[in-house]
Amino acid sequence: MSSITSGAPVSAAAPVASGATPSQVLPQPAERRSTTTDRQETPRRYLMCPPAHFEVSYAINPWMDPAAPVSRERALDQWHALRRVYEGLGHRVEVIDPVEGLPDMVFAANSGTVVGGRVLGARFRSAERADEAAHYRRWFEANGYADVTMPVHVNEAEGDLTWTGRLLLAGTGFRTELAAHAEAQEALGVPVVSLRLVDPRLYHLDTALFVLDDQGPDPLIAYYPPAFSPGSRQVLERLFPDAVIADDTDARCLGLNGVSDGRHVVLPLEATNLAARVALRGFDPVLVDVSELRKAGGGPKCCTMELRD
């Protein structure tokens, strides 16, 4: 594996071998925005599911092609590497057992939203994934969560529900129903802002937007404006005037499907443009190879449900 030394240009990133420890992109201090203070990570707790039964046998999003070859072994290597990244950064990873016949169960983010110990489960739009919701619900109940609500309306959890630390951004347009946003507010007891997605490639909110810093008085996000309706763009501009703006190159590799702990930002290996932008804002990008998992439409965030107890 070729590593990226401190101060090396982000564009110099070499491919990270599957299963290897990804490189960090660390800009020189002079390259960082002068108004940026030192970023502070906060310990996180995640729920993940190994892709032991991973395959692409159906197509429920534009990234899936059942005719294309898929390597389960490579997907497992990439998943284990992602888990090691989180644990290496000091975060705790819980694991739910995979279930045969549910190849997309690896995408844990779609099966629950946890804020303040309250859990809102999932209700999938596609029949192929419907059974995942009950397995995750049982995990929550077996692990001490007393307040678990299962939605009536289609709700694909953190795929379309993003907690900023102050309010919940809720996506609709392709998967999660608008009525589910009101359900989320009632179940989780937090304010909800609805956003409409318009690009079929970016069918979940977590493919078009993610939170970089949820700890301060002013949350910081990164997003790709063309993924949203004109009105939703205006809402995002008003709420997050200092946001990091991604480009089409980032979107084409699901680069917005990232995970941040307030300092380290885990991104797909190919998202070098976005990595450069967040590095200039004082964050430390960590690039991971998720190319096999992306064949099913997933990236780092799709594989990662945050347990906010």
UniProtKB/TrEMBL annotation:
Region (Disordered): which ranges?
1-45
Which residues lie in Low complexity bias regions? 1-23
Span of the signal peptide:
none
Where composition is biased (Basic and acidic residues), the residues are 30-44
Q: What is this protein called?
A: N-Dimethylarginine dimethylaminohydrolase
Q: Report the source organism.
A: Actinoalloteichus caeruleus DSM 43889
